[in-house]
Write a structure and sequence with these properties.
Elements lengths: L10 H9 L18 E3 L2 E3 L24 H18 L2
Antiparallel strand pairs: 1-2
């Protein structure tokens, strides 16, 4: 993207850097809250409207077969992934 980047191992410090104008944005997954906001130490971040970035690669979901409802959980995840692929998401 041709921009200067910083790494920070602590999530709370990322919010502090943004609140003190030491950064302009972060690439992050936003939670399923109504406005997709993240709040940490009084700093609220919201996604930029109509902007989405995809990251190459895959996500991995582990299901422990020894846990209760493991088969049900695995089946639900498979149905959800199939639905997402069908939508192109």
């Amino acid at each position: 993207m041709g921009i200067q980047t910083y790494s920070n191992p602590r999530w709370d410090l990322v919010f502090k850097m943004l609140s003190t104008k030491r950064g302009d944005f972060i690439l992050a997954e936003f939670p399923a809250s109504p406005d997709l906001s993240i709040i940490n130490n009084g700093v609220k971040l919201i996604p930029v409207p109509n902007i989405k970035i995809t990251l190459p690669g895959s996500r991995h979901i582990f299901v422990n077969k020894l846990k209760p409802n493991a088969t049900l959980i695995f089946s639900a995840i498979q149905r959800g992934l199939k639905a997402l692929r069908k939508k192109g998401a």
